[in-house]
Amino acid sequence: MGENATASxxxxxxxxxxLKIERVWxxxxxxxxxEITWERRDVVMTNWRDGSINFEQRxxxxxxxxxxxxxxxxxxxxxxxxxxxPEREWSxxxxxxxxxxxxxAAGEKYGYFATPADADVFEHELTWMLVHQVxxxxxxxxxxxxxxxxxxxxxxxxxxxxxxxxxxxxxxxEEGLIFKGGSxxxxxxxxxxxxxxxxxxxxxxxxxxxxMRGADASAGTIKSGGATRRxxxxxxxxxxxxxxxxxxxxxxxxxDKIRALRDAGFxxxxxxxxxxxxxxxxxxxxxxxxxQFMDAVENGKPFELxxxxxxxVIDTVDAKDLFRKLAQAAWECADPGIQYDDTINDWHTxxxxxRITASNPCSEYLHLDDTxxxxxxxxxxxxxxxxxxxxxxxxxxxVEFVIxxxxxxxxxxxxxxxxxxxxxxxxxQLGIGYANLGALLMASGLPYDSEAGRQLSAAITAxxxxxxxxxxxxxxxxxxxxxxxxxxxxxxxxxxxxxAEAADALKPQGPVATLVAKEAQKQWKAGNxxxxxxxxxxxxxxxxxxxxxxxxxxxCDTTGVEPDLALVKFKKLVGGGSMQIVxxxxxxxxxxxxxxxxxxxxxxxxxxxxxxxxxAPGLKPEHYAVFDCAMGERAIAPMGHVLMMAAVQPFISGAxxxxxxxxxxxxxxxxxxxxxxxxxxxxxxxxIYRDNCKVGQPLSVAKKEAPAAPAAAVAxxxxxxxxxxxEYRPVRKRLPKKRPSQTVSFTVGEAEGYLTASSYPDDGxxxxxxxxxxxxxxLAGVMDAFSIxxxxxxxxxxxxxxYVEKFMNMKFEPAGMTDDPDIRLSNSVMDYIFRRLALDxxxxxxxxxxxxxxxxxxxxxxxxxxxxxxxxPPAPAPVSADAPAAPVPAARIGSSTEVLESITGRVxxxxxxxxxxxxxxxxxxxYVCEGCGSTSGCS
Length: 939
Hints:
Layout: H1 7-14, E1 38-46, E2 53-63, H2 68-77, H3 92-109, H4 116-131, E3 135-137, H5 139-144, E4 156-158, H6 165-180, E5 184-188, H7 208-224, E6 232-238, H8 244-263, E7 284-289, H9 291-299, E8 302-306, E9 313-318, H10 319-333, E10 337-340, H11 341-346, E11 358-359, E12 366-367, E13 371-379, H12 392-412, H13 418-427, E14 430-435, H14 437-443, H15 451-479, H16 485-504, H17 511-534, H18 549-553, E15 568-572, E16 578-582, H19 585-592, H20 597-610, H21 638-648, E17 659-662, H22 668-680, E18 685-690, H23 701-705, H24 708-728, E19 741-748, E20 751-759, E21 765-772, H25 778-795, H26 800-807, E22 816-820, E23 823-826, H27 829-841, H28 844-850, H29 855-867, H30 896-904, E24 921-923, E25 926-928
Parallel strand pairs: 4-5, 5-6, 6-7, 7-10, 13-14, 17-18
Antiparallel strand pairs: 1-2, 3-13, 4-13, 8-9, 10-18, 11-12, 15-16, 19-20, 20-21, 22-23, 24-25
Helix pairs in contact: 1-15, 3-4, 3-12, 4-12, 6-7, 8-10, 9-10, 10-22, 12-15, 14-19, 15-17, 15-21, 16-17, 19-20, 24-25, 26-27
């Protein structure tokens, strides 16, 4: 698969004078920077544990229209150079110039441009598009291009491993090098002989699952080493491998271990000290199924498992039973996912070189072994006009610019191994994609789960990939086809015709979709005609990636192919602080649907208060579906996500990074059906996640019901209080029927709950109610009983300070990080609750004796100590008996996921960010943090 010796000469012969570049976004004689109003900002990031500053760079320069979030993430993630040194980048101009000028220089070096003037236009157009957030390269480009570091541009890698110890050790090493650079990789282990096969020495083989342990431990260690983001990996096994049942059960069995260890008192939180004893947690697992297997499942036939050494039948199993085990495991812990081997290879442009056996961690990059793919994503909202039109001409030209730049990068890029270097340069895989599809559909007044929405999405995707391959064919005429094209001309042309036929079969609804589909058909026809004459520059052109961190860089409301997460979002403010706002897509959609401005304001205000549109004043019920989201009151049904994937899949070279969320009540049979429907609908890969199925995940509802240990610890504590009340026979002072109260939602470790505290009119705590766990669960019952006991005791005169002294620092699980800025870490739920009550109801002097302070008080005390002066606490503000319940401060909400939960009362299974502690939000098949831009493995 390596680059042949005549590649350079072939490129020279193919050069037809270089590309002529036309202006699209820029003006002749005006630099893109001169059209923008720039402003200076301060970026200060605080530590979630104690409020201390963990990053500070003041005076950074960004366009005025960039959000605070985008500014913070680009400054902390992408600016190079040590903070505080002259070498540190401080302006977006420096970052964009570092990348764009490198691309321009390489384009001139390798003969992409006809004249220096064309190179100038290319540089200006790329600059304009980046600073105006029209598109973004994947993160490794921003990390590495134009720096002294290796010029790594790819985020996605596929490795290979053969049936030998040397090859397995190479796999460990290569994977580690990729993780070190912050990228992810995938590998198919099906060449490794099964545990039921013999070694040459006569012993029995270990099997692929055993070797997964070593790779998993390596990934976990490198993840903990503080790289750009945690290690991301995919492990795949073919369905006909004799060890397939063990592979399927691997992670589900480990989840059982987590339950048992946690219930025994071990720290099994994500990132906990004891979670490292659990194996296989650093990889996504997928089973590669064939059409033969799926037919056997459908018809209830037996299925043969084949040896790796000689292909002989090792075992025969019931296909339907094996498929049920696959669905059962996915239902229990979300792993393994499924990949449809024959569909993948039916759309393979390079089948003469070899089969596609694996994918990257998120399953969007599918190609040859030992290759890589660099990604870039377009912001679709930048092409949506105020009148609902789609700017087709600019979209096509933008695709041309991006594809040209991405291909240039392969010419100068560095890669972690020699094999990947040779193969990537020989096949030049690209992954153009998009973000903000969900926002575009909503703004256009189209439900995500509708045929009209799917057809517009399919048409846009067809146009993007069609224009990309047409540009690739033009590049082949200038700098030559990819080196592997001659060998693969027949399969490549066949796949191009399949894409074109799918575009011709589009059935658009509405004038916008019709125009987009018509242009897509035109692009495919022109591109195929040109490609059949002179070949294509790239064996792959498009994928749909999660667009995690770069989605924030472009200020996108939605990631990849996803719908909107929710109708409300979290927004950071200039100068600090945050606020909850209704997505700006909502009023735009309402106007497109014909609502008057007064109606738009009323509906938007309702959404801001309730988080959904049901019963919004003046909103027609037939328009509710336009505002359906991934979470909340009107969540899109799982099949709606699958149908959207099926609509766009025929127009993607690779596949789609997306996890289909299913409700907790979903059955194993529904998972089976979902995996079957994915096969019938022509998907290449599919993964599901059933709410609360992973006990090792923080903040999951299921885990709140499980721990019996905390409940047992709480019950005896109330008994002495009751005995004390009986013994001294004090007079009970009951609360009046109408009394002031406040409710605080809280999270401690994996447990989420609500604390309602009511006080006497003359101020003083008199009643406490705790909700922890589902209604009807044992833990919820114990909490109710405990609340009543404490409340009665308070009314009989037991001082709150006594409770705080007794329960503060009590240790039991769940424990750990909280979402309260005043109490960042807690030893237990009891520890948190009574610290919170102390902060809310005890005077400063009593709290000072106990060592309980707010974050502001701790900061002020520290400043006073540094300045050598005495700290004087502020006088408490008078509290009115009729004052409304105190709302949870905006600062306690750190992400859009938490905003939604604060309104709906539902809990997302999203993990907490390893870097800043903010609750992450879904982005494709991984998660991304709105606080600092960190991802769980995807660019």
